[in-house]
Design goal:
The chain is an alpha+beta fold. The protein has two domains: 188 residues, Fructose-1,6-Bisphosphatase, subunit A, domain 1 (Fructose-1,6-Bisphosphatase, Chain A, domain 1); 132 residues, D-Maltodextrin-Binding Protein, domain 2. Helix content is 30%, strand content 24%. The strands form four sheets. The protein has an eight-stranded mixed β-sheet, sandwiched between helices. A five-stranded mixed β-sheet has the order 12-11-13-17-15, with helices on both faces. It has a two-stranded antiparallel ribbon with strand order 1-2. The longest helix is centred in the first third of the chain and has 22 residues. The structure holds 2,5-anhydro-1,6-di-O-phosphono-D-mannitol (AHM) and magnesium ion (MG). The site of magnesium ion has 4 residues, from strand 5.
């Protein structure tokens, strides 16, 4: 039996009909993102076949080694979207400064933040990696975009999503009207709807964190993780540890199966005094998806979506996943760390 096939573009058009005032610009932007994701997916899939793996030999603004595929993905997203006519400014993890629309091209009404290839330290080991994106509406005066447009709290996001390059390539997005997942069928080159209105289990049985950092954690985080290793009456066993070290992949698994991902503040680690992950293009978009799916995302105490960003590459502790698990973590932090 052949099921009804719904492409991501078709799905976006159907969603758009719910908003009579929509101009179509937003849907066009989302389909451009899907196309860029397909191009990156193609390169990721053939990465083992060509001389594209390995370091480029210099560091990005975060002081991390830049790998060739990161660079490639960054180029694909920036070059294909900055001239699309739908955005006014865009910022990526790989670039120190935001990118403005070049002269002569139409300036759109959205600000885009992207982590073009997250989890890139996993590329050489053929582990799933992903692209994360967030879209804010332009709020700055004048025609050109400014930092005001992307330095907005997460609750103002117009849309967020990710593309995971795994055993299959998937695109997951939300516009605040449910979370929808699509799988790329490489034979026809289309993202096809596979899971509409995804809901995260209220409580999970999985925890994901880099436990090697245990010594740097606060009392509250240590106590919480210790607690998860005790017998869980709900399942009659302790929580299961699963950590890929690739945020999109760890998040995606927890979205489907339930669970909690933690990259908490490393109090005594001078390299990560504010957490490791970036607020604008990692934490905010995934927080919007988690919340839309019935989950939660906090920095320990405060909801990620309520944090007002101060700078483009701002880092933030990220605790995200099933609502029950995240709220329990918050109660440990309140009890032991405040
Ligand atoms: P990246 O953006 O440089 O790839 O770093 C982000 C990644 C996340 O995907 C992952 O959750 C985290 O870093 C893993 O960090 P660690 O290796 O410290 O556990
Ligand atoms: Mg990243």
């Amino acid at each position: 039996m052949v099921h009804r096939l719904v492409t991501v573009e078709r799905h976006l058009m159907d969603q758009e009909r719910l908003f009579p005032e929509a101009t179509g610009e937003f849907s066009s932007l989302m389909s451009d993102i899907a196309i860029a994701g397909k191009v990156v997916s193609r390169e990721v899939n053939k990465a083992g076949l060509v001389e594209i793996l390995g370091l480029t030999g210099y560091e990005n603004v975060q002081g991390e080694s830049v790998q060739k595929l990161d660079e490639y993905a960054d180029q694909v997203f920036v070059q294909s979207l900055i001239r699309s006519g739908h955005i006014c400014i865009m910022a990526t993890e790989e670039r120190e400064y935001a990118v403005h629309v070049p002269e002569g091209f139409k300036i759109g009404k959205y600000a885009l933040t992207v982590d073009p290839l997250d989890g890139s330290s996993n590329i050489d080991a053929n582990v799933s990696i992903g692209t994360i994106f967030g879209i804010h509406r332009k709020i700055s005066p004048g025609i050109d975009g400014s930092e005001e447009d992307y330095l907005q709290p997460g609750w103002k996001l117009a849309a967020a999503g990710y593309i995971i390059y795994g055993s299959s390539t998937m695109m997951v997005y939300t516009t605040g009207n449910g979370v929808h997942a699509f799988t790329l069928d490489p034979s026809i080159g289309e993202f096809l709807l596979c899971n509409e209105d995804v809901k995260m289990p209220v409580k999970g049985r999985i925890y994901s964190c880099n436990e090697g950092n245990y010594r740097f954690w606060s009392e509250g985080t240590k106590k919480y993780i210790d607690y998860l290793k005790e017998m869980d009456p709900a399942s009659d066993r302790p929580y299961t540890a699963r950590y890929i070290g690739s945020l999109v992949a760890d998040f995606h698994r927890n979205l489907l199966f339930g669970g909690i991902f933690l990259y908490p503040v490393d109090k005594k680690n001078p390299r990560k005094p504010r957490g490791k992950l970036r607020l604008l293009y990692e934490a905010q978009p995934l927080a919007m998806i988690a919340v839309e799916a019935g989950g939660a995302a906090i920095d320990g105490l405060v909801d990620i979506l309520d944090i007002v960003p101060e700078e483009l590459h701002q880092r933030v502790p990220l605790i995200i996943g099933s609502k029950y698990d995240v709220e329990l973590y918050r109660s440990f932090i309140k009890k032991y760390d405040t």
